[in-house]
Amino acid sequence: MTDYGHELRFGTFLTPQNADPTGPVDLAVLSEDAGLDLVTFQDHPYQPAFLDTWTLLSWVAARTERVHLAGNVLNVPLRPPAVLARAAASLDLLSGGRVELGLGAGGFWDAIEGMGVPRLTPGQAVDALDEAIAVIRALWDTDGRGPLRVGGEHHRLAGAKRGPAPAHDIGIWVGAYKPRMLRLVGRTADGWLPSLSYLQPGDLARGNTTIDEAATAAGRDPREVRRLLNVNGRFSPTPGDGLDGPPAQWVDELVRYALEDGIGTFVLATDDPRTIRTFAEQVAPAVRDEVAAARAASGTASGPVRSAVALARRVDGIAYDTAPADVPVVEPGDRAYASLRSTYLRRGAPGVVLLPRTTAQVVGALGWAREQRGPLAVRSGGHGISGRSTNDGGVLLDVGPLDEVTVVDEATRRVRLGAGATWGKVAATLAPHGWAISSGDHGGVGVGGLATTGGIGLLGRSYGLTIDHAVAYEVVTADGTVHVVDREREPELFWGLRGAGGNLGVVTWVEIEAAEVPDVVLATMTFDASDPARLVERWGRVVEDAPRQLTSFLHLQAGGGGRQPLAQAMTVWADGDTTSAVAALEELLGAGPVLDQRATLTPYSGVVGPVAKHHDGGAPPVTRSGLLPAMTDAAAADLGRLLGSGEAMLVQLRATGGAGNDVPPDATAYAHRHQRFSVTSFAGRAGRAGLDDAWDRLAHPHMDGLYLSFETDPRPERLADAFPGRTLERLRALKRTYDPDHVFDQNFPIDPRE
């Protein structure tokens, strides 16, 4: 007797006949409405009486919302695996993760050969299927680097690009009966999918044994292979043999298959609507109940099984099996890990990623994280240039699921933003109200990071920093306490969160008073940067003298390798007065030789719009950051020399004056209220020694302070640049109160013991 503990699933196996093309679709919809989990279709591409199965699956995906979909089984000789991999991943993305792959080596070779495919021997067909699975898995592996090369006699990849990654772990189920195919299932497949009508007594037990032995030999847990079974029968009022009788008889038979033969998925082959409803409404629930009761009595472990490969990637010192049960956990061996491990610029390798969906789950996740070995990183969006929202070998607490954007008070334009929301989502949500919040220059930036660091944005000279309009935070401190703070409730913590929040806790939401912002003018200008010092000086002087409606960012790229040095200015005029905007922008055009220019009137959501997030990082970023009080000839000249030194491939300047300078320096933990520009440089070579030397010689003498999110220099003196004098003293006092054990020690750490 074998019970693998798989969660029970039930589905249908439908005929894709084309005499009435809507018929199979209607049966699929009925399967979902009746409560089944899975809809599958035969795949015989050589059969002119059938609809093409993949086309049908796509159509059904659009007509359904919940059921998973699969071919049963897809004819691999007639479906090139590289194309099938991309088709399956695409449909999985479009359907919200509802596609599975049932694959077969091909059974009707006269018909297959008639479609123009060379005949294979049975042994060759097994080899070809094995190679096909390798090709499919390789294309789905977007965590790898470089083009794909997979060798094979029948199927190969010779430099293909990776992706797309599917939305979920698509199961690869193989229809198999003979020992060689069964061993293939054990070695590499996610499921075994035979049909009961093709089996003889004892075949299920013998097949399970063969699969289990092959899985064990390959270093897998046999429970990794789901056991599925296509069944057929007839509901009748009087008992008969097997699945020929009343629903209660079916229940008894299927319970036996589940508990004795390990079947976790039953797929009913029928095109009869009444049979589908009876199966879904009377058989499936009863089978679930009886199997659950039997497992409870026997103590059989049930639920998902983590593969041996995944278990081997676990990091010593992290007690994975004790993680909070209600918090989604992603480990290095999981498919979702590739999309979570890295930030915008840094490729990380955390030992585990926690994805809490509520404040209570943040509390549980943080408490568990404190007990684990290694660093703790906290992430909202992962776009931060510093790359500190990931790590290597530690715990990553990702609040991305906390992404709701809610209007709290229309009259005061008070908006509650989940820390995991992106500013692109915020801008799009506020646009219909005619509101906006100044928030960086990229829609993929997360709310939590920006709203606890400062928030230098393209509305900054008009409306100030993001934190200047924050009115309340919810934060989980190191001891797991949930605080809601504002100017009246724990005002000192409220002060600290506005500029040094990464040192003080995990922010779950922030409330901000949005501004009424009409359509703005967005202008982009491309300049020849052959004389970077002159360009920087002229641009900076124009920006300093411009009305507050104008905020501009300038990005200069060094030349080399046949590339011309270029600069791009991204500028926003923060109202709809196009006449004044044109006058101000014309001044800016005089900064240097213009290669391209364009301007448009747009809502703020057109400046910082929603973007798809896929961060796969790279080497740890090497940057330096500083805040420039004013643009001087000397500063411009040295920034030009920095760009020409070969040590900086990119220099960015962001205007920070105007309304941001109206706030007193001690009003927030971001104390830099007299500087007019933020300057960031990115290394042009591997390692940081060259950039550090060039920056310290050329740029640093002109700077006064730095911006946290753009700085990666780990030397302790940078802390004083970020938090001057009295600000740092107040923050140390806050750390002694709220984080005495220095749990949050990764993002410009302020040691409470000093």
UniProtKB/TrEMBL annotation:
Its cofactor is FAD. Keywords: FAD, Flavoprotein, Oxidoreductase. Coiled coil: none annotated. InterPro entries: FAD-bd_PCMH, FAD-bd_PCMH-like_sf, FAD-bd_PCMH_sub1, FAD-bd_PCMH_sub2, FAD-linked_Oxidoreductase, Luciferase-like_dom, Luciferase-like_sf, Oxid_FAD_bind_N. It comes from the Bacteria. Belongs to the oxygen-dependent FAD-linked oxidoreductase family. This is Putative F420-dependent oxidoreductase.
